Automatic annotation (TrEMBL):
Belongs to the zinc-containing alcohol dehydrogenase family. The keyword Zinc applies. InterPro entries: ADH-like_C (IPR013149), ADH-like_N (IPR013154), ADH_Zn_CS (IPR002328), ER (IPR020843), GroES-like_sf (IPR011032), NAD(P)-bd_dom_sf (IPR036291). Residues 13-368 form the Enoyl reductase (ER) domain. SUPFAM superfamilies: GroES-like, NAD(P)-binding Rossmann-fold domains. GO terms for molecular function: oxidoreductase activity; zinc ion binding. It comes from the Bacteria. It comes from Gryllotalpicola protaetiae. This is Zn-dependent alcohol dehydrogenase. Signal peptide: none annotated.
Amino acid sequence: MTTVRAAVLRAPGTPPTVEDVELADPRDGEILVRIEAAGVCHSDYHYMTGGLTAPLPLVLGHEGAGIVEAVGPRASGRIKVGDRVALLWRPRCGVCEACVSGNPVLCELGRVQAATGGLPDGTSRLSFADGSELHHLMGVSCFAERVVVNENAAVVVPDGVPPEIAAISACAVITGVGAVWNVVEKAAGRPLLVIGAGGVGLSAIMGAALTGAHPVVAVDIDDEKLELAREFGATVTINSRQADAAAEVLAATGGRGVPWAIEAIGRPATLRQALDATAAGGTVVAVGLGAADTEFPVPLNQLVQRQKRVVGSLYGSSNPLIDLPRIFALYLAGRLPLDRLLGERMPLSEVATAYEHLVAGAVGRGILVP
Ligand code: APR
Ligand code: ZN
Ligand code: ZN
């Protein structure tokens, strides 16, 4: 048992508080990781507002990286003390139908974590000093000095990849790049639309550029974010506050629309823009998470007469054990400019301010350092 500083969410609508909590030792197949960097992802904000719910109170943070300080009993040996690791918010049991059929993002352990607020075995290593119950978020809870996670929720980070890059790679980057790699088909030489140029959307734009899509069209409501989108490979940018996004996309694609559109915000209005901007036979890939009660009305005849599809993609529909090492290798080869995705760096004690800045439109991915 060790005491760690951590950002605790007690109730939706209240700011997170940074306080000392207790962290139990790793059990079978688990590891203790000292956090070096954690990303300020929009998903945590959904839990802060109550748009998404999880067992409370909990320790926030799900996009993190650090150094392994201890390995629990009966671990596989894949992760060793001293390894630098990026943390995954979807573990992988390896034996359920989703895992075996090559779709580990839908591993049953994800549901166990969500329902119990625990690690994959359904129990928590976190508690308050008085022994009362404290939950994990998405099996990670990395807005903390240290975490205990399942070893299957960690990927070794190669030398040369800094902790903040490792952290954002394990959520925003793999979600955006993964949607292009694992969902979009035949991207090369064809138009690709990305709506939303936050951490996830910019990563999708990077993935689109890397894959040879053309033109890469980015839509946002913030000119600064659109400028960044251009740096990452967007060739057409549209500010949807100033212009009709779908009409502009049609104009940029000879009136046809795009075969693939990625929505990286999670709003009905922008999903509709994506659908309207999609060519006949095209597909909208919904990547942005909305609040739990978000609904998206789809005009039926766009599906039938124009044979469009809307599909969802969680966590880049990836197999992180394969895709994350590829992302690291491309970063080290200079082909994924992830450094430019980084925004302001703040101490963990400033977590509430970091989220105020996110909501106010901070450019680049914020990083919290314990
Ligand atoms: N039209 C266009 N762009 C918009 C709109 C809108 N109506 N509203 C917001 N945006 C832009 C913002 O300007 C910002 O650039 O969407 C982007 C959202 O970025 P972030 O807040 O950084 O969110 P991010 O972490 O990238 O996550 C996006 O994916 O995983 C989910 O929960 C996450 O719902 C979130 C989404
Ligand atoms: Zn995230
Ligand atoms: Zn599984």
